[in-house]
Design a protein that fits this description.
Length: 394
């Protein structure tokens, strides 16, 4: 098997609705694949076995780098799967466009994914919370009481929302919608897991490593002056600043051992993300030699306190006790890696798992000692609402 660069074909710009899509887009680079050249099985626990991905990519001949995509499980004890598409379209912010082709892959023909028909929009939909709101608030109160008792400092709890339609949900249609309205987000579609995450878990390009952890949230209203005041309140909130610093310290400490230089912005900024805004801090550094693959960095970082809690082991144990559903890929790393170890992975939040006529999404909040269950419930509703609006458009 061999991989080569191919010129972008006229008219091939974005995946068509109805296509089986594998894609990842950031403000700097957009990649989307068609066909399947290889599936790479990563045994459980996936963080201990990510080296098999590099070995598999090395087995592909040719000068150009093949690219593997994955939406990794939140659960570190689970196995994982990476997909190497036959063709990967690469569009960069400076206008470069090219296609990476695994040798032997044929150009899509009529009736293939490129020309697939878009499914009809659903005309009937049902939406339900898997756990009723009062019960979920009781769960938040239980977690808060454990924190006040000194068992831990923070735990992230998520609500699951299930949507059932009378037509199958289409990943390409949803990805295109999310990318259009969230140009600054990290938009992804891998194995039916589709989303627009505001949070970069880690990227590695050459010797440069970046992460932009987020923790601390307030709602947006759509009124610029009010949202600006709320952003100021967020920056001035001791609760949110402490929660944010826990995450920054964890990310910094996890990356430090890989770097000859690593620094974080001196103070966080407020980043809008659809219906909410977050505290965010860019962490950037220079990797030591030999440079680790982005997958080694992903394995070292996941889960951050922004999606798990602090201390990690106590938070994960409490999640397991209190959350009724397996998170699946929600809040797990999702992104791409090439044979050179370059790549980018988002935190898989603001996401939905599509499965035919069923869609499952989660919305999470960080619970701390002074959390109010009703306020946390409102935050989950705000986070879920924007994605639901794109999902259930009729």
């Amino acid at each position: 098997m061999h991989c080569a660069a191919d010129a972008e074909q006229p008219g091939v710009q974005d995946p068509s609705p109805g296509a089986e899509l594998t894609a990842f887009a950031s403000p700097r680079r957009r990649l989307w694949g068609s066909g399947e050249a290889m599936r790479i099985e990563v045994p459980a626990p996936w963080p201990d076995n990510v080296d098999v991905v590099g070995e598999a990519l090395d087995s592909i001949g040719g000068d150009a780098d093949p690219v593997a995509f994955a939406a990794l499980p939140y659960d570190r004890h689970a196995p994982a799967v990476f997909t190497v598409p036959q063709r990967v379209h690469v569009h960069t912010a400076d206008g470069e466009r090219h296609v990476l082709v695994v040798a032997g892959a044929t150009r899509p023909a009529e009736g293939s994914a490129r020309h697939a028909s878009a499914p009809d929009a659903a005309s009937e939909l049902s939406v339900r919370a898997v756990m009723p709101a009062p019960d979920w608030c009781d769960t938040v109160a239980t977690a808060r009481d454990r924190i006040r008792a000194g068992d831990l400092t923070k735990v992230v709890l998520a609500r699951e929302i299930e949507v059932i339609g009378d037509q199958r949900f289409d990943a390409a249609t949803l990805w295109n919608r999310l990318r259009e309205v969230n140009p600054a987000a990290l938009c992804f579609a891998v194995d039916g897991f589709v989303g627009a995450s505001p949070e970069l878990l880690v990227s590695r390009l050459g010797s440069t490593v970046r992460a932009q952890p987020m923790a601390g949230t307030t709602r947006r209203t759509g009124h610029p002056e009010l949202d600006q005041r709320r952003a100021g309140d967020l920056l001035g909130s001791d609760k949110n600043r402490v929660e944010h610093q826990i995450t920054i310290d964890a990310v910094h400490d996890a990356l430090l051992g890989w770097c000859s230089f690593l620094d974080a912005e001196p103070s966080p900024s407020v980043v809008p993300a659809g219906p909410v805004q977050h505290l965010a801090t860019l962490v950037e550094g220079h990797l030591s030699s030999p440079e680790p693959s982005v997958l080694e960095l992903v394995a070292a970082l996941h889960p951050t306190p922004a999606v798990g809690g602090h201390p990690t082991d106590a938070a994960l144990a409490l999640q397991h006790e209190l959350e009724p559903a397996d998170r699946g890929r929600y809040a797990g790393p999702v992104g791409w890696v090439d044979r050179s170890g370059n790549g980018a992975f988002a935190v898989g939040i603001r996401s939905v798992q599509l499965d035919g006529i069923r869609a499952s999404l989660f919305a999470g909040v960080g619970v701390v000692a002074d959390s109010d269950p009703e306020a946390e419930l409102a935050e989950t509703r705000a986070k879920a609402q924007a994605l639901l609006g794109h999902l259930v458009r009729i």
